[in-house]
UniProtKB/TrEMBL annotation:
GO molecular function: peroxiredoxin activity
Keyword Membrane set for record: no
Domain Carboxymuconolactone decarboxylase-like: 18-99
Entries under InterPro entries matching the protein: AhpD-like, AhpD_core, CMD-like
Protein name, as recorded: Alkylhydroperoxidase AhpD family core domain-containing protein
Organism: Micromonospora viridifaciens
Record SUPFAM superfamilies: AhpD-like
Length: 156
């Protein structure tokens, strides 16, 4: 059943323009802490895949490709644990993104081993940026999925 045929309301950011400034500040903060841009792109895309946010999956994949990501890595992202395409730091960031996105799936949502592996690759400021970016991605995913914001149609 395809329920995402039509948005329930216009994009909430368009209806509440003050939210755009807040979103831009979150984006800027997360992207200014030294985490590689491609890692943030992968984290955003993976959380969006988990949440089934078509608009963010579409924009995330396009943004990642524009930033230089290969199709090979993008196609394998959902199965990142079983492919050789990702660095250890990227794997740690992806594990953190999955755990922080699936909070209700286990009694210890972000286990020490996931956090400790991320901390092995990222400093405190970078970890803060990753957590902020994962939370921001989940924020947008929930808005878009709830209001059925569609992925844009691309022709050609």
């Amino acid at each position: 059943m395809n329920m995402a045929l039509e948005a329930r309301i216009s994009n909430p950011a368009g209806l509440l323009p003050d939210s755009v400034q807040a979103a831009n500040l979150l984006y800027k903060a997360a992207h200014s802490a030294g985490v590689p841009g491609n890692t943030l792109e992968l984290v955003h895309l993976r959380a969006s895949q988990i949440n089934g946010c078509s608009a963010c999956v579409d924009s995330g994949a396009r943004g990642a490709r524009k930033a230089g990501e290969t199709d090979e890595r993008l196609f394998a992202l959902a199965a990142w644990r079983d492919t050789p395409y990702f660095t250890e730091a990227e794997r740690a960031a992806l594990a953190l993104a999955e755990a922080a996105t699936r909070l209700a799936d286990r009694s210890d949502p972000v286990p020490d081993e996931v956090w400790d592996e991320a901390a092995r690759h990222f400093g405190e400021k970078e970890l803060a940026a990753l957590v902020l970016w994962i939370a921001t991605t989940n924020f947008f995913n929930r808005i878009n999925v709830t209001t059925r914001q569609p992925a844009p149609q691309h022709w050609g």
